[in-house]
Amino acid sequence: MSGQHASxxxxxxxxxxxxxxxxxxxxxxxxxxxxxxxxxxxxxxxFNRWVTTTCVGDxxxxxxxxxxxxxxxxGVAFRKAIADxxxxxxxxxxxxxxxxxxxxxxxxxxxxxxxxxxxxELAAFGRVSRQAYVDDQVQRFxxxxxxxxxxxxxxxxxxxxxEALSRLAGSRNAPLGLxxxxxxxxxxxx
Length: 190
Hints:
With about 190 residues, this protein is mainly alpha-helical.
């Protein structure tokens, strides 16, 4: 009888396990669907396009107009993005893309000359290891992301923006100093 009782308890607990597993899965799904920094989905789409873009010209102007529709929430988000940088997921994606670019680069023979590049530099480029190449590209992505957040803050402004940008601009050796100085100029022309 005790064996039957234990089996009945295990069978009765199976639906409870499924309910708990379902609740955990639902919670994870909802958490992953949330946007960063509490932005609405529309504001987050604009934020994400700005911090991950390299657009110029007409495309940038159109995106700037969209950013101005969400000035206040984007101001907060850009200040946080300057401090936080890209998410771990974005860094993983940048790492994977850089690794793919390294593989693509390795498939083509190295030219003996490239205009504007001396032989020594060309030889050094050919000797770069996968790890060094990928690490460099990920660092460039992270710096670019944060620099775009600095530029975005200069466009949308908001409480504390000028002070935050001034602090960054005052750091002559900081990688974001130049971006902050330019963002302050943008604020002054608006």
